[in-house]
Amino acid sequence: MNLIDGAIADLRRGAWVHVQASNKRGLRIAAAELVLNPSEFKSTQESQAFLLLTRAHARWLQNGRTEDDLTPVRVLGLPPDRMALWRGWPEIPALKAADAPAQTALALLYIADLLPVAIAQEDAPPVSGRASHDSAGLVTDAMIQAWHDQTADLHIAAEAWLPVRLGKESHRARLMVFRDLRGVTHQALIFGTLDPSVPVPVRLHSQCLTGDTFGSLRCDCGDQLTRAMATLGKRGGILLYLSQEGRGIGLVNKLRCYSLQDQGLDTVQANCALGLPVDGRDYRVAKAILDHLSVDEIILLTNNPSKVSALATMGIKVTIQPHQAPAHDHNRHYLEVKKRVLGHLL
């Protein structure tokens, strides 16, 4: 286990880790959602303990307070029995990009699939290795960047032929599983025989457990997946199924956003209220898989211009084929926000 993996594991079990940027003084942090005993982080005369938030999160909390006291812990998505733990704690947002240790701390929480809210305290970090049995060694901004760079370093882990049911018909498809250096897998389901000398129909589909598997009607993901497979089954092409749940925020945080949507927020507002990116997907993964398949010109089944621009920036020639599932009472507002706020071509 490398140091980043060790730090992620420690954060997920409620322990604290050290983060630092360059040679600056570091921070001692823990995930606010997991620490059950705030007394572990007592303020001293030299170092005050505080809640560290993202800039967007702090801005939302400041503007979002209501007469019934919409406290930060309520917006954090913590269960009721945790609310009292953090009531009254000072909140210090990472307001400056130059505040590199804070940015590193929040980035580490995000890649650990935790809410980007830390209990933090200025601290002199360990020089190297592990500080103790209860703390990971030093994590730096350079290590976070190196972790992200592993995203697109893929190799083929396995492949096999699949008979796939599409409506009343069946098609033979080839499933290829790609694994990155972090152990995350992404899939390419290939219909027909690829001819990279002509534009190849492609659907980039981000994993959606709720919609693809459980048939959730809150989004249009399941319908889009079904329609894309039907199209590719007839024409041939590639379905890229990317492990980037909830536009990259992960399943747990996606469900937390759902809970806030049930309180009246839309899909974008809910992400901001939790300090999460509106869209945290990394399309370098798609580019890496297309490179493996020697495909550099595609017909992209999409209504999302950001996918087109991201691939075009990386050298993929893209032609758009409109790809839209029908609206209904459960997802109409969700689709309206995608069109009005995110610029989807709906």
Descriptive report:
There is one protein chain. This protein has 346 residues and is α/β, with parallel strands linked by helices. The chain is 34% helix and 25% strand. Strands 7-8-9-11-10-12-13 form a seven-stranded mixed sheet, sandwiched between helices. The N and C termini lie far apart (45 Å). Residues 65-75, 94-98 and 127-136 have low confidence and may be disordered.
List the helices and strands and how they pair.
Layout: H1 3-12, E1 16-20, E2 26-31, E3 50-53, H2 55-64, H3 72-75, H4 80-86, E4 91-93, H5 100-111, E5 117-123, E6 135-140, H6 141-149, E7 154-166, E8 169-180, E9 185-191, E10 200-206, H7 209-213, H8 221-235, E11 237-242, H9 251-262, H10 267-273, H11 284-292, E12 297-302, H12 305-313, E13 317-322, H13 332-340
Helix pairs in contact: 9-10
Question: Any key phrases for this structure?
Answer:
6-stranded mixed β-sheet, 346 residues, 25% strand, 34% helix, 13 strands, alpha/beta
Decide which structural class fits the backbone.
Answer: alpha/beta
Tell me the radius of gyration.
22 Å
Instruction: Give the tally of β-strands.
Output: 13
CA distance, first residue to last residue: 45 Å
Reported for the largest beta sheet, the result is:
7 strands, mixed
Return the string of H and E elements: HEEEHHHEHEEHEEEEHHEHHHEHEH
The rough form would be described as globular
Rounded mean pLDDT is 81
Number of helices: 13
Task: Tell me roughly what share of residues is in helical segments.
Answer: 25-40%
Point out poorly predicted stretches: 65-75, 94-98, 127-136
Estimate the strand proportion: 25-35%
Widest sheet: strand ordering: 7-8-9-11-10-12-13
